[in-house]
Amino acid sequence: MTALSGKEKESVLYNRTLIPADQVTVKVLDRLPRHDTIWDMHMAPDDTLYIGACVEHTAGMSAWLCSYRHDTGKVEYLADMAEVTGESNDSGHATQGKIHFSLCHDNDGLIYGATHCTTAPKGDIRWSPFSMYRDPIRSFPGSYLFVHDPKTRETRSLGILTPNEGIRVMVMDRDRNLLHITTYPKCHYLIYNLQKKTLEDLGRFAHLHQLALFLDRKGNAYTTDSFGRMLRIAADTHRIESLGVQLPHAHFRSGEHNILWQVAKQPGREVIYGATYVRDARMFRYDMESNEMTDLGLAYGRREPLPIPEEVAIGGMTFGKDGSLYYTTAEGREPEDLPRSNPPRPYDPNAPQDVPWRRKSPGHLIRYDIETRGAEDLGIFGPEELPFNGRSCHGTTDSKGNLYFNQSVSTPPRFYIYRPERS
Amino acid sequence: MAGKRLDVWSPSFVQEGTVVVRELGFEGIVKPIPDGESAILALVPGPDGKIYGLTHGRKSHLFVYNNVAVEDCVVPVGMMAENVSGGDLFCTSDGIVYGVVWGEPAAEDAPLPMTMFRYEPRPDFVSSEMAMIFGQVEEIPCPFGGRRISRLAFDCSRDTAYGLFIPDNVLFAYEPDSSEVTEFGCVSEGVVSKALCVADGVVYGAGDESAIFRMDPARAEIEKTTMSLPCGKGKWYANEASALVYDPRVRTIYGGTFIDGFFFKIELARERVICVGRPTEQRPIRCLTVGRDGKVYGISGEPKAGICHLFRYDPETGDLRDLGIPHSTIVKCWTAHEIDAICTSRHGYIVMGENDRMSHLLIYYPPVEPR
Questions:
Q1: Which residues, in sequence order, are CB contacts of B66 under 8 Å at separation 6+?
Q2: Distance separating alpha carbons of residues B84 and B77, to the nearest angstrom
Q3: Are A186 and B337 in contact (CB < 8 Å)?
Q4: Does the beta-carbon distance from B305 to A164 stay under 8 Å?
Q5: Is B218 touching A (CB cutoff 8 A)?
Q6: Strand ranges (DSSP E) for A225-358?
Q7: Which of A126, A249, B43, B165 could make an S-S bridge to B343, C-beta 3.0–4.6 Å?
Q8: Cα(A267)–Cα(A285) distance, rounded to whole angstroms?
Q9: Phi, then psi, of A67 in degrees rounded to 5
């Protein structure tokens, strides 16, 4: 058998046509021209999409809570986190510049979220979450819990939950009025009781990175440690226990840094479809009842990881109304396409976020049939003039079946909408 | 953006010298001490060069770190008690390890649940290819009668441990050979430092108003000195020494304070205290050790609220330097946040014990100085 070269494999496997324009909409948050990231989007039951517009690369700015309704096509700019928290952007501290994976809603339709760190203080060009942790001037004051009432359109702060610490992930257990929280950079697991207003610190559970958690219907929570080993936080005892199964990874890896990244709950089942973090990202199926982990392989088009690990992320994972699983990915590059050197550049907040070599790796939208385990490349995603770069961290679906995918990094921030049915 | 990020992160970590991390188990051979039971309370070097450690949490474990043989490994050797919140460890001159652990009493006036144990290491030690024979940890009667005690200071020359009964501030000596406890009376009313130090056979501590006292066991008398701990102006009434360590080569006690996080030295020959400064903006100084190079290594950091830094004091130059946060990628990527135990190994490596839900040993190899 003759092995195909990388180029041949690509030409055979990838659908290089653009997804038809009438199925794709791109929305740009153009009133926030210097914001550069969206980490979280949350679909409320009334089909309002809530978006956290963040600032990763420009100092002294604050995150905004925005919303979008597809029936009106209108983006609304609801709240500036500097105003909500009372932490002004020129305080000297690291600013309330991000809303990470924390947007959620309760049974009354109130939207909850938390602010997050790493945006530098005004006037600084960078910020270290470690060195500045307890710095009296440049520290991050802490993550604020906030609540937005869609009826009154008021967003208010409920105070700092985690002094000096960011909230990276927050998921609501609506039946028990609990918020499950993981922090950064100290990587602690917390449970906040909204009714009693009590915060319980269950301790450290991993090294640094943690990007997702999910709940079963009994209220048990699941996440992974630094080696992608599944952890369960028992609903009754609030104890962290290791479940003895690990996320899939390439045979030459130990699983270190291969953590939970994408999570999509199969409707009506205690089953999660997910993906591991961006290097050699693999898909998996995890059955919460039987504690069974199934490796579903790489994102699309390859059976083996690239020889030089790179970011071929699986992102935006969400179930469509048709029962299929949708996600985004990028083609990835063969070694000959990789840049020969990556010289350090002086920091420039106005520099374009798209680097030229990344354009060689367009973003695709994939439809995955969970019954047949077959994946279909729907094509290159996004209009030609504003293409999707293949890096989404959040996907969600509205009641009409429209699919929403953020582009993690872009200035100004933007997200894409895909309509499965052609108009 | 990756390059820019590294520029922000890596300078926070220890870069002068090398840090490696060890799980509290023999990698691939012995199951590590579980999370929630691995928080390290104390580390003591034995005369054979091995280092013994004591953990707390849902269960308390004794472990041994063999840093001197070809097997560079940690092996848990026994479980001490359940629901342990405090304890300490010492090792006698003939290599026998003694420890005491305690939990919280069931009621306010109930005696403290305490367990005392003794561990005699077997001379034949572990090999990854052979059976591991360690000897047994045996429980022995606890001589403290359910009274809460401070950290212990051990005098190898007399094989005697010294401590304070709390809250009475009564200084005692415990001789493991005879299991005898001798009380020397109350050192001071009010705020008394829980850290003690033995220097040339004399016990040093700090009582109310930061006043330094000493007790010479030969005379069995507590004597107030003219020296006092350094502290921020007006804070003396709440000041305590958080760590004390003695270097007999220069007859100097090095110490740290809780309230300000000051690092200081007590020159015994000249009976004077010198406040060296604050190694970081955090407080307190949590633990100290004197290296084989005569430099002092310590940990500064606010328990739970901060992130620990390793610092170094060079008595020759007077340089007090923040070395950074202990972080390693050997054998796995790990950054320590909470450290409350430190000691110097026979070969001069600095061994740090994490005090967190997931705890490890971190071994710091100081850099080789150019000639």
A1: B50, B72, B73, B74, B75, B125, B126
A2: 17
A3: yes
A4: yes
A5: no
A6: 229-233, 240-246, 260-265, 271-276, 282-287, 292-298, 314-319, 325-330
A7: B43
A8: 13
A9: -140, 165
CA distance B19 to B17: 7
CA distance A204 to chain B (A): 6
A131 → closest Cβ in B3, B11, B35: B11
Instruction: Tally the residues of chain A.
Output: 423
Q: Do A186 and B307 touch (CB under 8 A)?
A: yes
Nearest CA in chain B to A347: B4
Alpha carbons B265 and B252: distance in angstroms, whole number: 7
CA dihedral for B127, B131, B133, B136, sign (positive or negative): positive
B325 in contact with A at a CB cutoff of 8 Å?
yes
**Element housing B174 (H / E):** strand B170-175
Q: How far apart are CA A329 and CA B259, in angstroms?
A: 53
A 10 A CB-CB count for B65 gives 23
Stated pTM of the model: 0.93
Question: How far away is chain B from the Cα of A353, in angstroms, using its nearest Cα?
Answer: 9
| Cβ(A288)–Cβ(A270) below 8 Å | yes
CA A215/CA A220 separation, integer angstroms: 6
pLDDT at A344: 40
Q: How far is CA B91 from the centre of its chain?
A: 13
Which of B281, B239, B279 lies closest to B257 in space, CA to CA?
B239
The token pair that represents B228 in the structure block: 């006092």
Between CA A228 and CA A246 the distance in angstroms is 5
**Does B28 contact A at CB distance below 8 Å?**
no
> What is the percent of chain A where pLDDT is above 70?
87
pLDDT digits (tens, 9 = 90+) for A367-403: 999 999 999 999 999 888 888 988 899 999 999 999 9
Q: Using an 8 Å CB-CB cutoff, list chain B residues near A133.
A: 306-307
| Maximum mean pLDDT: which of A159-168, A306-315, B44-53 | A159-168
Residue type, B178: S
Q: Which chain A residue has the Cα nearest residue B359?
A: A204
Residues of B in contact with A206 (CB under 8 A): 358
Q: Are A320 and A403 in contact (CB under 8 A)?
A: yes
> In B, residues 251-290, which contact A (CB 8 Å cutoff)?
281-282
Q: How far is A127 from chain B (nearest CA, A)?
A: 7
* A358 has a pLDDT exceeding 50: no
Could you tell me which CATH number the domain at A33-204 has? 2.130.10.10
Buried residues in A295-309 as b, exposed as e (16+ CB within 10 A): ebebbbbbeebbeee
**Separation of alpha carbons A165 and A171, rounded Å:** 17
Q: Give per-residue pLDDT as tens, B102-132.
A: 999 988 888 899 999 999 987 655 554 555 5
Residue pair A417/A18 in contact (Cβ under 8 Å)? The answer is no
Whether residue A17 contacts residue A365, with contact meaning beta carbons closer than 8 Å, is answered with no
Question: Is the ipTM beyond the 0.95 threshold?
Answer: no
Q: What is the pLDDT of residues B292-347, one digit of tens each?
A: 999 999 999 999 999 999 999 999 999 999 999 999 999 899 999 999 999 999 99
Distance of CA B302 to the CA centre of its chain: 16
Predicted confidence (pLDDT) per residue in A45-103, tens digit: 999 999 999 999 899 999 999 999 999 999 999 999 999 999 999 999 999 999 999 99
Query: Shortest Cα distance from B40 to chain A (angstroms)?
Result: 15
